Amino acid sequence: MHAGAGTAPPASASGAATRAAAAREARAGGLLRATRWTRLALHLLQGVLTIATIYPLTGRDTREALRQRWSQGLLRVLGMRLEHRGEAIAPGCMLVANHVSWVDIFAINALAPAAFVSKSEVRAWPVIGWLAAKNDTIFLRRGSRGHARIINEETAALLDAGCNVAIFPEGTTTDGATLLHFHAALLQPAIACGHPVQPLALQYRTPDDRFSRAPAYDGELSLGECIANIIAAPRTIARITVAAPIATADGADRRTLAARTRGEIATAIGVALDAQT
């Protein structure tokens, strides 16, 4: 009996080929991760040097342009591609977004530079906390009513100056597949000064449009572990779906406004609110 052209190779040869392919894939993955870690370190150094040497010599418009360009570069370094859907971001709006990852801040800044209201713990993060502090981040100490009033005043002043201010009213991060309760008090500055709010729905997807958990910074995950997960993912899409601005007026019901923005975001990310806490 003669072996034909379609005869399968021996099992040992097939297994060796599979192992060799797996080894090549592992080497390629290791090289990709090493390259991204190196580029990330260099990109962070560039950000520190830019803020230390150029920021003091420039005005707000230039700083915002630099921030946007640096944030776009960070996404590229991490293997992410920004995808914008929906409306344009309007100036002088409070941007209301769901919260998945520390990357959220830079994804939004890559689309439209904004000041952020963030938990005070972020200030202590190595390098990233310092960068955030130098880029108009407003750090909120939770549980302090006096400090909350100061935050509201700072937020209103930025909105009045035509800047965007972004908040994450869930107050914490999720894996991106759920949407928590919105803390309505964070929307009060926009109501008090009559500026619109604009919902932003953040999603992280694979190139074939499947849900990606790689950027999620939730549970007991450390910042380093989260960065490692992002770097290990071959490619991630950072998708921001922007809804139309919602007009506000002094005296408006902030709980109703919070519910409306939450509903807009839930629709964009495909979450059924009646199934959420």
Relevant terms:
277 residues, 45% helix, disordered N terminus, 8 helices, alpha/beta
Question: pLDDT below 50 for ≥5 consecutive residues: which ranges?
Answer: 1-5
The average pLDDT is 88
Helicity range of the residues? 40-55%
Determine the N-to-C terminus distance.
69 Å
Portion of residues in beta strands equals: 5-15%
Query: Element order, helices and strands?
Result: HHEEHEHEHEHEHEH
- Strand order of the main beta sheet, please? 1-7-6-2-5-3-4
Secondary-structure-based class equals alpha/beta
Radius of gyration: 22 Å
Largest sheet: 7 strands, mixed
Query: How many strand units?
Result: 7
Description:
- With 277 residues, the chain is of the alpha/beta class.
- The protein has one domain.
- It has 8 helices and 7 strands.
- Strands 1-7-6-2-5-3-4 form a 7-stranded mixed beta sheet, sandwiched between helices.
- β3, α4 and β4 form a beta-alpha-beta unit.
- α1 packs antiparallel against α2.
- It is globular, with a radius of gyration of 22 Å.
Task: Provide the fold topology.
Elements: H1 11-53, H2 60-77, E1 80-86, E2 94-97, H3 103-111, E3 115-119, H4 128-133, E4 138-140, H5 145-160, E5 165-167, H6 188-193, E6 197-205, H7 223-232, E7 236-242, H8 254-269
Question: What's a quick, concise take on this entry?
Answer:
The chain has helices spanning 11-53, 60-77, 103-111, 128-133, 145-160, 188-193, 223-232, 254-269; strands spanning 80-86, 94-97, 115-119, 138-140, 165-167, 197-205, 236-242. With 277 residues, it is of the alpha/beta class.
